[in-house]
Specification:
With 171 residues, the chain is an alpha+beta fold. Helix content is 19%, strand content 27%.
């Protein structure tokens, strides 16, 4: 179960690091080249998009309650609410240094859709397959699961009340 999101691939690998909690930015900066560089191992993640296309080895997979809108500088996203009853699924496949630079530029600009290896959609259910245990960042916590990972939206499973003038309130 998750409330906000589940990350697989690069971010999941980074949050597994014992150094991550005390030095998030430094740990991320240190690990990214080895995770996306030319000698990086392919992630053991397989899934299908709604058009039936199979994807193997995506470096970034984000599953969220409702889709994110990635429009903020720095690649951070926002959602108006999390109760829409659908999963937001975003994934990126990066091959080589040139694509890594293009992906980083698109994410930093808050426009990941400009990167050719980016795909996103909504669905009530999503399945990720793998040959072995899958590292995951579940609402920011480092966990590991046996495949297949099945994500299903449970509409109205949790009621969250936020004050009207809460700092950081999403539009």
């Amino acid at each position: 179960l998750f409330v906000n999101n589940v990350s697989l691939g690069v971010y999941a690998k980074i949050v597994q690091s014992p150094e991550y909690r005390d030095a998030k930015r430094q740990t991320t900066t240190k690990m990214l080249p080895e995770l996306l560089g030319p000698d990086a191992e392919q992630f053991d993640l397989s899934f299908a998009t709604p058009d039936g296309a199979r994807h193997d080895g995506a470096q970034i997979v984000l599953v969220s309650n409702n889709p994110y809108t990635f429009s903020l500088l720095g690649g951070f996203g926002t959602r108006a609410d999390i109760g829409g009853g659908v999963l937001g699924i975003s994934a990126a496949e990066v091959h080589g240094a040139r694509e890594a630079a293009a992906a980083a530029a698109a994410m930093t600009a808050g426009r990941p859709e400009r990167f050719a290896g980016w795909t996103e959609w909504t669905a009530p259910r999503f399945v990720v397959e793998a040959d072995g245990p899958v590292e995951a960042g579940v609402d920011g916590e480092a966990l590991r699961f046996d495949p297949p990972l099945e994500f299903v939206s449970l509409p109205a499973a949790l009621r969250v009340r936020i004050p009207v003038h809460a700092p950081g309130l999403s539009p």
